[in-house]
Every structure is written in C-alpha cells, then in structure tokens.
Amino acid sequence: MTTMDTQELLQKVGVNLELHDQLIAYNNKLFEATIRSAPNRPTAMKYFDSGFHASHASRVGEILDYRTKGGKSIGTFCIYVPDEIALAADVLPIPLCGGSHWPVDYADKMFPRDICPLIRSTFGMAFSGTCPYKKLKDATVGETTCDAKKKAWDLLGFEVMEVPQKKADIDRELWLSEVIRFRGFVEKLSGVTVTAERLKETIKLVNRRRRVLQAVNDFRRLPNPPISGLDALLVSQVALSQDIQTFISGCERLIDELQRRVGEDISAYEQAGPRVMIAGTPSPMGNAKVHFALESSGLRVVADESCTGMRYYRDCVDESADDLAGMMKAIADRYFSIDCSCFSPNKERIENILKTIEEYHVDGVVHNILSFCHTYNVEAKIVDTALGKVNVPSLKIVTDYSFEDIEQLKVRIESFGELIQPKQLQRI
Ligand code: BJ8
Questions:
Q1: What is the pLDDT of residues 294-340, one digit of tens each?
Q2: Does residue 35's CB lie within 6 angstroms of at least one atom of ligand 1?
Q3: 296 C-alpha vs ligand 1 centroid, how far in Å?
Q4: Using CA positions, which residue lies closest to atom 3 of ligand 1?
Q5: What b-and-e string marks burial along 26-39, b requiring 16 or more CB atoms within 10 Å of the CB?
Q6: Ligand 1 center to residue 419 CA distance, Å?
C-alpha cells in the first residue's frame, strides 16, 4: 500500500490526518530507537516489523474490506474476551489497548489524569481522532477486571463481560454463564448462529496461534536465546493486531530461522547478562519501554509473564469436546484459568511464576507495573514473598509510557543487574 493509499484509507475511516501523522512520527521514532535498534535480529522479524506499521495502515484496509462485504467486528480490551466464540459467529475481534504515550493527554477530556496509562492511551487515541478502528466496529466489549476499566465502560456505554473476582465453583458458574451470554451477544450482532462445527474450527485456529507463540518463546529457555525479549514482545503485540493465518505463517518462518540459529549457535545477545523475567501489566503495541531499559542495560529478558506474554498463550482450549455445550465449557475453563491480578486470591499466578523461573532459568524478576494499577502493584508483594523463599531477587518498576524516567530506570536496573547472582545458563 502506497503512502497515498494509506492517507486516503485513514481519511475514509474518519482519522484526523494531521494528528495521526504526529502520532505515527512519535511511535516510529520510538520503534526505531527501541525494538529496531537491537543487535542480531532474525531476518524473519521483518514480517513483525511490518505488522507494527500495518496496524495503522494495511490492517485497517483489510478490516474495512471485510466490513464492506458485510462482516461485523467488535473492539476489545482484555484477553478474557474469547476470540473463538466471536470468530465462530463471524465477528472479528479487534484488540484496542493503546501502548503509545503520545495520545494520553487527550483522554483528559473524559477521564481523570490519575488512572492507568493503558486506559489513557486507548481513549486518548479515540478522543484525538487518531484511532483508525473507531468507526470499524459494531460494538465494544469491556470486562470487569479493574475499577478504572469498569467505570470507563459504564461511562461509554459499552457491553461488559463480568469477570468474577474469586475462583470458587459459584464464580466458575457465573463465568460460564457470561461466556454463554457473550455467544448470544455476538450471534445477535452478526445474525450468525454459532454451530458446534464452526466452533470446533475456531477453537483449533486460535489454539494454533497459541502454539506458534509457545514455540517461538520456547527458544528463550536456551542458554543462548536466538531471539531477544524485545523481539519476542513485538511478536506478541503483532499476534493481537494482525490476521491470524498470516500471523501463524509469519511465526512459522521465524521458528524455522530460530531453529537454524540454534544449530549455528547464534545468540540475539552480545553478552551473557543476567536472565530476567518481566512480570505484571501488559505492554501493548507502542510500549516496549521496560524491555528496552533492561536489554540496553545488559540484562536478557527471557520470559514475559504478562498478557503480552505467556498469560496470552500459555493454555490452549481443550479440543476433545464435540458438542456445543462441551466446547463452551472448555472455552470458559480455559479463560477462567488466566491468572490476572484481579483475582483474589490468585495463587495460580504464584505457581506459574515459580514454574517459569525453573523452565526459563530465570535469575531475577522485574515487576513491570503501569502507574495506578493497584492490583498488580499490591500483588507484587505477594509474589516477592514467594520469590524470597527460592532466593530469586526482584525489582519493582512502576511507570507510565513516557520516556522521561528512562535514565533513572537504567540506573536502578544496572544496580539490580549487579546484585543478581547468575545461577545457570550464562553461555554466549
Ligand atoms: S487479564 S492484565 S489484559 S485486565 S487496565 S488491570 S494494567 S489498571 S490490562 Fe489487563 Fe485483562 Fe488483566 Fe490482562 Fe491494570 Fe491498567 Fe486495569 Fe490493566
């Protein structure tokens, strides 16, 4: 798609071109300075680099085409909204979480300043007229995962899925009923009934996306990871924004190249720095700040525990059921196993973190917490108690999307890096 085509397209979907140019200039500059500046990148990352740019260009065109042919779509903000069911009703989910600092002040039109930057970025884009998807959806589906989100949906009149806050049987039943209600919602939107046959196909398709993500990230367990944490983050971000089939093909090419790199002992890193896991809040597309601060300070990010990491792809939906009720239950169970800090207690998250530390040979954990995200911020203390028992040090970073504090962060990260006693797998 030429520049001219893109501008016409954006105009067609109601984007404010002048402000959009500013947003893209800001995002591109950061992308070049962070993700693209990493050394030893696999050639197959080209697809994911283009996926970054496509999210405000050709992907918009694809969705516009789909809608012109009568397709329906919904905006979403959380990995609790089950893609399988939406797709089985011929409704395309479009994740809308913002990761750019540029639009955050535009959110002040409706929201207080002292809320999470993810919410401010998302609505800052919508209110500044720079979100190309605003007019490309028939409905928007929120969820009750945090107070700021809940009230935002209220204010904006969105459809809301109730995510329970505990994991007792009664909560599981409530969640199943919400998943069934969501099916009714998307069926009504598109006029397409979800059949067992179609749902079986979409369960398999979405699981395939999870499996390629698992395969890419498995390489990060190795002594010399052939892919960096910054690139692995970009892969996850692109998973959320691009066409599933194209994304799967892009990952398959990357997996082949990573396999070859392993054979030739090519590392994504120039030195064998401490191996760290990032835990906590997601880093939606546009935000790679903490990954960059860590990797440009000589640490290696070998695991991401967040929703732009393994929380998104760790578990697949059980494919064994053949009837609609069985499949709906399998989907509800899979999504109910997500260990978001909105749950209380949230012991699965601690178990998953400890398991990941073992599997990825993690020397230290970095809590990446978006400002004003109280559940992850407080839960970091519970995580730290568990880490203390296995002698794994941690560093808590509470920050927003702006780069104002980057030098301070790097000073803290460098001290943390010196404190970590690498236990294992330090080879280059
Ligand atoms: S499952 S992490 S995508 S809610 S918006 S909770 S950062 S204050 S994004 Fe999330 Fe779903 Fe949980 Fe994952 Fe905190 Fe900000 Fe709320 Fe957030």
A1: 999 999 999 999 999 999 999 999 999 999 999 999 999 999 999 99
A2: no
A3: 26
A4: 78
A5: ebeebbeebbbebe
A6: 30
Rounded distance between C-alpha atoms, residue 138 and residue 416, angstroms? 47
119 Cβ closer than 6 Å to some ligand 1 atom: yes
Question: How many Å lie between the centroid of ligand 1 and the Cα of residue 310?
Answer: 14
In angstroms, what is the span from residue 375 Cα to ligand 1's centroid? 9
- Ligand 1 centroid distance, CA of 373 (Å): 8
Residues 337, 209 contacting (CB under 8 angstroms)? no
Q: Atom 6 in ligand 1: which residue has the minimum CA distance?
A: 146
The finding on whether 340 has its CB within 6 A of some atom of ligand 1 is yes
* Contact call for residues 267 and 40 (beta carbons, < 8 A): yes
Question: Which H, E and C letters describe 47-112, residue by residue?
Answer: HHHHHHHHCCCHHHHHHHHHHHCCCEEEEECCCCCCHHHHHHCCEEEEECCCCCCCCHHHHHHCCC
Which atom, in ligand 1's list, is nearest to the CA of 117? 15
The answer to whether residues 52 and 162 touch, using CB atoms and an 8 Å cutoff, is no
Q: What is the pTM of this model?
A: 0.96
Tell me, using a 6 A CB cutoff, whether residue 281 lines ligand 1.
yes
- Closest CA to ligand 1's atom 16: 146
Judging by beta carbons within 10 Å of its beta carbon (0-12, 13-18, 19+), is residue 362 exposed, middle or buried? buried
**What are the tens digits of pLDDT across the range 333-353?**
999 999 999 999 999 999 999
Residue 426 reports pLDDT greater than 70: no
Ligand 1 mean position, distance from CA 368 (Å): 12
Tens digits of per-residue pLDDT, 384-422?
999 999 999 999 999 999 999 999 999 999 999 999 977
Asked if the model's pLDDT at residue 3 lies above 60, the reply is: no
Mutate to test the pocket of ligand 1, among 150, 312, 370 (most ligand atoms within 8 A of CB): 370
